[in-house]
């Protein structure tokens, strides 16, 4: 059974790939590739996967990984710009890196820092590293985050991007059972138009969206 796209809500979706565990549908409107809702993990099983993550600000390798987003974004921020790290996970690190650079940070995570109050404030920038591929309702969540940005503010996203159906079939990224949404450059370009934002692609897995 076809399902509407969780990003743009279009009913125009079609089979894209199937493996031994899951099906993958593609949206003809925004090009998102996604897993049908009935094949997602239950919340407790999803959290159990995240609990195995061992990220830490003390891990130099993890900091280097996050620098792919940190470096191009921090270079575009004014002094003292205030930020939110959305989906910070069990070992918040990107927020520490920005605070070290002089930018006050709030954090939010539905499992580890579930304070909805921080989502009511306005920010100069919002980051979500390795987050959007986990979202069950990416359209609603990304629109909400964009709405929390001050004029000229930045939304910085980090996620691996879909290339071709052939590459997708052998892609390690789809092996993680918590990954349910897969974005391409075309998807992010569609999103920028939808949110009326400028879009930049500073790295193969980094996207910067700026509020006009």
Automatic annotation (TrEMBL):
GO BP term, example: methylation
Keywords: Methyltransferase, Transferase
Superkingdom of the organism of origin: Bacteria
Keyword check for Methyltransferase: yes
Gene Ontology MF terms: methyltransferase activity
Coiled-coil ranges from the UniProt annotation: none
Protein name: Class I SAM-dependent methyltransferase
Lineage, top ranks: Bacteria, Pseudomonadati, Pseudomonadota, Gammaproteobacteria, Oceanospirillales
